[in-house]
């Protein structure tokens, strides 16, 4: 069960970069996407972690941790793109 958050992050990181690049190709602002998309991911990560103590079912708790960790991890590839 420790691997599920890592697997979710492994999927979320390239997916977030793919979505960001596609939106830029369609004319979205690079500055907004490189800043707003990671900010939304971190907000969702924080909300998942705040909600975690209220979840009683272990399987749902693992799901929430996995999604929260994945949303928080999307900042890493987008941060590199933002800096460059």
List keywords for this structure.
84 residues, mainly alpha, 4 helices
Could you characterize what this model shows?
With 84 residues, the protein is mainly α. The protein has one domain. It contains four helices and no strands.
Query: Helical stretch count?
Result: 4
The separation of the N and C termini measures 35 Å
Mean pLDDT across every amino acid position:
88
- Work out the helicity level: over 70%
Radius of gyration: 14 Å
Helix-and-strand structural type: mainly alpha
Q: What is the string of helix and strand elements?
A: HHHH
Beta-strand percent range? under 5%
Number of strands: 0
Shape: elongated
Largest sheet: none
Q: Low-confidence spans: pLDDT under 50, at least 5 residues? A: none
Total separate domains: 1
Task: Please specify the SSE layout and strand pairing.
Blueprint: H1 3-25, H2 30-51, H3 58-73, H4 75-83
Helix pairs in contact: 1-2, 1-3, 1-4, 2-3, 2-4
Describe the structure concisely for a colleague:
The chain is mainly alpha-helical and about 80 residues long. Helices cover about 85% and strands about 0% of the residues.
């Amino acid at each position: 069960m420790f691997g599920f958050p890592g697997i979710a992050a492994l999927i979320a990181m390239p997916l977030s970069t793919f979505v960001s690049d596609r939106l830029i190709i369609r004319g979205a602002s690079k500055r907004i996407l490189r800043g707003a998309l990671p900010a939304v991911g971190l907000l969702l990560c924080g909300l998942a972690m705040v909600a975690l103590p209220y979840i009683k079912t272990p399987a749902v708790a693992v799901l929430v941790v996995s999604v929260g960790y994945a949303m928080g991890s999307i900042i890493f590839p987008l941060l590199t793109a933002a800096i460059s």
